[in-house]
Amino acid sequence: MLSEEWIEHVRPGDRERLGWIRPDGDAFVALDVLGREVTGPVEWLEAEEALEERGLHWLADLWQLDLPDGTRARVRIVEVTPDRVVVQTDDFGSVDVEVTRHVLAFPAPDTLRPFEGDRSTIDVIG
Question: Residue 22 contacts by C-beta under 8 Å, 6 or more apart in sequence?
């Protein structure tokens, strides 16, 4: 759940949300759009710069999701809002592949991580 004390930070050019900045004592912590810490406690401008440098391109990368049954799924992020994160199994760029969608809490749980497998294979990771 999005905290009321988090301050939205948008990209200056197109006003796209890059994340939030959370007060932390006399400092601030940058949080990405998944609600995860990008920095430790830093000055305000450093938090802004960290979010702008990170951008949003990393959301298009492959991810892996640990499933309740102990397996992992190779997934792509398809929606991120302050209410939820939606991922779907990787379709490998094909329009006729059946996919499974998973609706996750926000901030994104630790079970969603950058993909650690061999990107060039289509085997299920695990």
Answer: 3, 5, 6, 7, 28, 29, 31
Q: Is the dihedral of CA 96, 102, 103, 109 positive or negative?
A: negative
Task: Read off φ and ψ for residue 48, nearest 5 degrees.
Answer: -60, -45
Quick check: 126 pLDDT over 50?
no
User: How far is 85 from 112, CA to CA, in rounded Å?
Assistant: 10
pLDDT in tens, 97-113: 889 999 999 999 999 99
| Tokens coding 81 | 């809002």
In DSSP notation, 10-25 reads E-TTT--EEEEEEEET
CB 21 within 8 A of CB 28: yes
For the entire predicted model, the pTM comes to 0.86
CB neighbours (10 Å) of residue 120? 5
What Rg, from alpha-carbon coordinates, does the chain have? 16
Residue type, 111: T
